[in-house]
Inverse folding.
């Protein structure tokens, strides 16, 4: 009887140790992970491939009501003073507006994206990063990105900056979230919430805002994206 | 004063850009005309453009252009998205432009890109895993809305690199253009499930 008890205790102890080793190993492996797409994927709760208006706002609510607060509380307890965020704008910003935004918010910009339209009416994403202390793109690079030698008379039409990735002071999360130019300050990829040592970024929501007709400012008739019944379904879902 | 400088800079971007003549050299167009996998585009071309930016820095633009898919490739991409592969789903179509040698020290990608793939998500990596060698050698665009890829549309992905050390023509840096199907690894990382290489380009050519 006594032997049986010892055996049970030993088995339980072994399971606990094995579990601890497993968790540690997973944590170590996850340290090399890329949560940007994985976190974005979670927004599509019903897994139909489209992010509906309801799912988009459910995500926004969760980020603002839970993750912003958690980050602020962590900072108050001596945790990180800055969060790694992806900010999706409500409309394309001009270079001047974008530079002003970065200056006002104190955001340490790592990477930002712009919207353009090509000769087919398709949406074009353009990525930039600050170079040699200059926030805005080098004019030679930018000119090259807008041109298309295959269609010399149809340059890509530049609309403006649609999102930015960088480090934001946690104390400014609410203020920037309430900025009329901003749809969401998403800190889902901060290491407070996921292992992200390589600073992979949360995917921008701008494409989904466009699909759902939720961007502000002039509307553009893109060739791509859902239309008709498909769009109606996503909106009503 | 600072605001005035900013205004002048922005005005220069808008007004002067159309008349800027970029001093650079085009490499040859290297075409592919058959699909290297069932989900891959059946035609397209790659081309390199070497140029000097306004600060005198030597750069390289690696362009993948005029990328077209057949109906069966579009169907396969949708199939992989909806049904996955080997129990993993969804799979996302991904186009990758990367230096072949993980230990390369000639080129460094710097987060400049342009693409029209549906729901693009740009990623950059410094291989080899896990810590790299200090040079970003891999750039890719993951199409998160890959089910919206169409047969009659021309897609492209253009990636930009700083030239850190121009290699000699006798020993060029090789740049691979590949199609992939990516999935979420159990570790949380997005990884390549399937891939095939369309072409390799030499820099210098």
């Amino acid at each position: 009887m006594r032997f049986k008890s010892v055996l049970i205790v030993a088995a339980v102890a072994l399971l606990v140790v094995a579990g601890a080793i497993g968790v540690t190993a997973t944590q170590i492996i996850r340290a090399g992970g890329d949560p940007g797409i994985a976190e974005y994927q979670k927004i599509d709760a019903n897994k139909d491939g489209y992010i509906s208006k309801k799912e988009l706002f459910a995500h926004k609510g969760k980020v603002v009501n839970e993750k912003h607060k958690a980050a602020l509380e962590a900072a108050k307890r001596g945790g990180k003073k800055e969060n790694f965020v992806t900010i999706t704008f409500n409309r394309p910003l001009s270079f001047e507006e974008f530079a002003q935004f970065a200056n006002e918010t104190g955001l340490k910009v790592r990477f930002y994206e712009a919207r353009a339209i090509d000769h087919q009416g398709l949406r074009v994403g353009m990525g930039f990063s600050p170079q040699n202390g200059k926030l805005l793109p080098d004019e030679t690079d930018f000119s090259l990105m807008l041109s298309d030698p295959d269609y010399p008379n149809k340059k890509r039409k530049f609309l403006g900056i649609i999102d930015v990735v960088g480090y934001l002071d946690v104390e400014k999360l609410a203020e920037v979230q309430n900025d009329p130019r901003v749809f969401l300050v998403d800190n889902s990829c901060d290491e407070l919430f996921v292992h992200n040592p390589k600073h992979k970024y949360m995917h921008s929501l701008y494409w989904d805002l466009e699909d759902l007709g939720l961007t502000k400012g002039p509307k553009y008739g893109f060739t791509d994206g859902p239309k008709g019944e498909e769009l109606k379904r996503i909106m009503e879902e | 004063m600072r605001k005035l400088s900013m205004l002048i800079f922005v005005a220069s971007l808008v007004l002067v850009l159309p008349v800027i003549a970029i001093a650079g050299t085009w490499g040859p167009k290297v075409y592919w005309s058959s699909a290297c996998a069932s989900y891959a585009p059946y035609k397209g071309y790659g081309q390199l453009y070497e140029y000097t930016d306004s600060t005198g820095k030597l750069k390289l633009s690696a362009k993948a252009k005029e990328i077209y898919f057949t109906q069966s490739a579009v169907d396969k991409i949708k199939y992989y998205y909806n049904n996955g592969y080997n129990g993993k789903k969804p799979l996302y179509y991904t186009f990758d432009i990367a230096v072949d040698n993980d230990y390369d020290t000639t080129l460094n990608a710097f987060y400049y890109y342009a693409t029209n793939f549906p729901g693009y998500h740009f990623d950059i990596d410094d291989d080899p895993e896990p810590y790299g060698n200090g040079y970003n050698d891999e750039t890719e665009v993951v199409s998160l809305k890959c089910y919206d890829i169409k047969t009659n549309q021309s897609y492209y992905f253009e990636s930009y690199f700083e030239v850190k050390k121009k290699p000699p023509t006798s020993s060029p840096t090789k740049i691979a253009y590949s199609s992939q199907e990516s999935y979420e690894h159990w570790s949380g990382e997005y990884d390549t499930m399937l891939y095939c290489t369309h072409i390799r380009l030499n820099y210098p050519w």
Summary: Chain B is about 15% helix and 45% strand. The first strand of chain B starts at residue 24 and ends at 26. Residues 2-15 of chain B form the longest helix (14 residues). The mean pLDDT of chain B is 90.
